[in-house]
Amino acid sequence: MSPPWCVFNRKAPRWISWSDDNPGRRYYRCSRARTDGDCGFYVWYDPEHTTFMSLDLHNAVWELRSKALEIAELKQINDLLSSENKEKVLVLKAQEKDLEEKNKQLVLLANKFSSGSRCSLFCCGFVMLLIGLFFGLMLGVM
Ligand SMILES: [Zn+2]
Predict the structure, then answer these.
(1) How many A from CA of 53 to the centre of ligand 1?
(2) Using an 8 Å Cβ cutoff, are 30 and 38 in contact?
(3) Which of 2, 1, 8 is closest to 33 using CA atoms?
(4) pLDDT tier for residue 13 given thresholds of 50, 70 and 90
């Protein structure tokens, strides 16, 4: 089949439709389609196997769309998870701050202890003295 000629006697090229209603269906369209010189000519090209082909393509297009939907859903889940992760990170950071605070308090306590080490040394000496006295008494009794 030779290609048809459009209104202005130009060879009309063949295209494949990707519309919802006619996916995969072939058609002839003015060679200046979508330009100022478009004469608006188009005619469907329907060989015998086209119905089967278009059904097949229709399924393919449908499948692709459902996959795109799936991907969009996955992306949504991913976004949700990442926002959840952000919350977790915030909680972790709060905990970290809390720990830092506690650590500071511990350091302060440690400083207090070390500054009070003279006192504790004195206490230690006092205890040693008591023990000495105790043993002394024990020995004295024996
Ligand atoms: Zn034309």
Answers:
(1) 28
(2) yes
(3) 8
(4) very high
Which amino acid is located at 32 in the chain? R
- Taking the centre of ligand 1 as the mean of its atom positions, its distance from the CA of residue 9, in whole angstroms, is 7
pLDDT tens profile 67-90: 888 888 888 888 888 888 888 888
Backbone angles phi, psi at 27, to 5 degrees: -155, 160
The confidence band for 54, taking pLDDT boundaries of 50, 70 and 90, is low
This prediction has a pTM of 0.34
What CA–CA distance (Å, rounded) separates 31 from 12?
Answer: 5
Concatenated DSSP letters of 122-136: HHHHHHHHHHHHHHH
Q: Which neighbouring-strand residues pair with 45?
A: 26
Q: Is 5 helix (H, G, I), strand (E, B) or coil?
A: strand
Most confident of 41-45, 70-74, 131-135: 41-45
45 CA distance to ligand 1 centroid (A)? Answer: 17
C-alpha 98 – ligand 1 centre gap (Å): 76
CA of 43 to the centre of ligand 1 (A): 12
CB count within 10 Å of CB 44 equals: 11
